[in-house]
Amino acid sequence: MDRYRNVDFSAYIDDGTIVGHFVIDEPQFASRWGGKVIPQATVEAAAAYSKQIWPTLPTIVNAPAHWLAASTSGFHGNYPGKWAMSAAELRTYGAALLSQSHVCGFGMWEYRSAYYDRADVKSAMADLSARARSHAKTSCRQ
After folding, report:
1. pTM of the entire structure?
2. H/E element holding 121?
3. How many domains, in total, are found in the chain?
4. How far apart are the C-alpha atoms of 68 and 83, rounded to whole Å?
5. Is the CA virtual torsion 55, 64, 131, 112 positive or negative?
């Protein structure tokens, strides 16, 4: 972050060109970070530091919600020992997220045709897409 600390991004933040600061990707995977998981406290501190530099820029971290770790779908996920969500889980969790007034975006992370080509998953994604389109427009600069 310090490399870009003195770059004036304010015009790009203000006009929405830059919508967020992606602080870190998958801090829970030790194999991606020199054999050590990055502690949540470190991730929080990095996000807080980002806010000191760019106070109006939302911070983004890609990490799993612990309550999804034991997904019951039975569909193999992208990593050994991990599971993809079932269509019912997609609908349930996606609807819960999209029911929040402060949500400014909704996206899925990684595409796998064997998963997204399933009729039940296509249907769930179509439902969530319709919900997202009808969601009140909300600025990501909150």
Report:
1. 0.54
2. helix 119-134
3. 2
4. 9
5. positive
